[in-house]
């Protein structure tokens, strides 16, 4: 075997497009909820990629699925179908409201497919006028130009020239504002059933049900972006199950592959019928390697052991953060659901979430932010209690580091 080229963090600045600002460390190995960097330093992982490694690092069942499929068949393109894709689709259909599945490679692509399908459906069924897409401020749906324009943060979509048209943004949890703009020209309402990037914001029950009713009233499709909230994250396989609201189209990615890239769009037979042969596609979508890993993810996550364990873990996180806050007084609340939690900074620390993230790395902990005011945690759904406790010890040190600086 040839020698591996030695690389350091400096190489990033030398040869990578500067659209990211990665941490100073380079992780090289992970196991469960622990990660080691180039120097052999160990970290507790409360980030899970960004809510991606739902079963931690190198879960034995996922490694086995990848190895087994890796020795059988890697790729065919969609000129042929393949067994892992069909098995995964069967399992997703059996576990959800959906009858049909479309596979792609990322969350943005799943949402791109959902938005294109919604437009097709509305135009073909009701006429060319029905193209309005309503989405929510602070919503995040990916970085393709359509999805980033539907996302509710102008900072991410500005500066790229003319945007896809007929997209309206309203305030999350404000039913009256939605009621004022929705009409028979509305093609779809797109929402995260728990806003992730936007700050870990739960919809009220009244809002979630009201959105569904308004969509029904105006023949608009309800698209749930479950790229972050799905695959067990909130304690249900998908967050819609806990809300008691069923969408017309659901998108999944992130934890669906547990770290292997895959995205999926789920919908009903009637709606799916509008994506006829040739209307949409993806070379890698439904790739056998990705689908074999995702099938193993669903097999493990969609069990009472894993889903029921999430509540206890959420409790440990909430109690741990509250205890830290009782000493250091930097958070105004802990919000979210299941293992997608946000510690919201109070006015004294407003805008400083990144300081907490960087201090966490210093203390051997991987955490996330959700905007400038929220420290976000999205650990493995099967993180051992001992790792939660050790991670919280390190988080307390990180908080002390920021507070006492
Ligand atoms: C991360 C995310 C996306 C985008 O997923 P990518 O795989 O990065 O394209 C879309 N929607 C939500 C809710 C997300 O959290």
TrEMBL record:
Modification N6-(pyridoxal phosphate)lysine occurs at: 254
Compartment(s) of residence: Cytoplasm
GO molecular function, one term: N2-acetyl-L-ornithine:2-oxoglutarate 5-aminotransferase activity
Chief site of localization: cytoplasm
Keywords for this protein: Amino-acid biosynthesis, Aminotransferase, Arginine biosynthesis, Cytoplasm, Pyridoxal phosphate, Transferase
Any single Gene Ontology cellular-component annotation: cytoplasm
Source superkingdom: Bacteria
InterPro entries: Ac/SucOrn_transaminase_bac, AcOrn/SuccOrn_fam, Aminotrans_3, Aminotrans_3_PPA_site, Class-III_PLP-dep_AT, PyrdxlP-dep_Trfase, PyrdxlP-dep_Trfase_major, PyrdxlP-dep_Trfase_small
Reactions listed under catalytic activity: N(2)-acetyl-L-ornithine + 2-oxoglutarate = N-acetyl-L-glutamate 5-semialdehyde + L-glutamate
Additional observations: May also have succinyldiaminopimelate aminotransferase activity, thus carrying out the corresponding step in lysine biosynthesis.
Protein name: Acetylornithine aminotransferase
Record organism: Aeromonas hydrophila subsp. hydrophila (strain ATCC 7966 / DSM 30187 / BCRC 13018 / CCUG 14551 / JCM 1027 / KCTC 2358 / NCIMB 9240 / NCTC 8049)
């Amino acid at each position: 075997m040839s020698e591996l080229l030695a690389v350091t963090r400096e190489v990033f600045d030398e040869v990578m497009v500067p659209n990211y600002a990665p941490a100073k460390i380079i992780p090289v190995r992970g196991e469960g909820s622990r990660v080691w960097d180039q120097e052999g330093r160990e970290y507790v992982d409360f980030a899970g990629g960004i809510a991606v490694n739902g079963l931690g690092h190198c879960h034995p069942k996922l490694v086995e699925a990848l190895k087994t499929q890796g020795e059988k068949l890697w790729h065919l393109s969609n000129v042929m179908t393949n067994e892992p894709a069909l098995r995964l689709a069967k399992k997703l259909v059996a576990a959800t409201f959906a009858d049909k599945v479309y596979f792609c490679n990322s969350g943005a692509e799943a949402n791109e497919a959902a938005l294109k399908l919604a437009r097709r459906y509305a135009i073909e069924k009701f006429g060319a006028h029905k193209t309005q897409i309503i989405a929510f401020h602070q919503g995040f749906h990916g970085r393709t130009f359509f999805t980033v324009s539907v996302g509710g943060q102008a900072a991410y979509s500005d500066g790229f020239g003319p945007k896809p048209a007929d997209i309206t943004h309203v305030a999350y949890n404000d039913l009256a504002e939605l009621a004022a703009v929705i009409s028979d020209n509305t093609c779809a309402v797109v929402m995260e059933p728990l806003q992730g990037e936007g700050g870990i914001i739960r919809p009220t029950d009244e809002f979630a049900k009201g959105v569904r009713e308004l969509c029904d009233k105006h023949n608009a499709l309800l698209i749930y972006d479950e790229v972050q909230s799905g695959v067990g994250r909130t304690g249900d396989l998908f967050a819609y199950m806990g809300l008691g609201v069923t969408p017309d189209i659901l998108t999944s990615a992130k934890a669906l592959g547990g770290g292997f890239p895959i995205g999926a769009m789920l919908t009903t037979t009637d709606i799916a019928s509008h994506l006829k042969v040739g209307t949409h596609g993806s070379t890698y979508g439904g790739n056998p390697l990705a689908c074999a890993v995702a099938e193993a993810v669903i097999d493990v996550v969609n069990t009472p052991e894993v889903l029921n364990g999430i509540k206890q873990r959420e409790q440990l996180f909430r109690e741990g953060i509250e205890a830290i806050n009782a000493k250091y007084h930097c958070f105004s609340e802990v919000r979210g659901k299941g293992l997608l939690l946000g510690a919201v900074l109070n006015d004294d620390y407003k805008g400083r979430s990144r300081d907490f993230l960087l201090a966490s790395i210093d203390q051997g902990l991987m955490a996330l932010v959700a905007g400038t005011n929220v420290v976000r945690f999205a650990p493995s759904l099967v993180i051992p209690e001992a790792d939660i406790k050790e991670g919280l010890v390190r988080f307390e040190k990180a908080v002390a580091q920021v507070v006492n600086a």
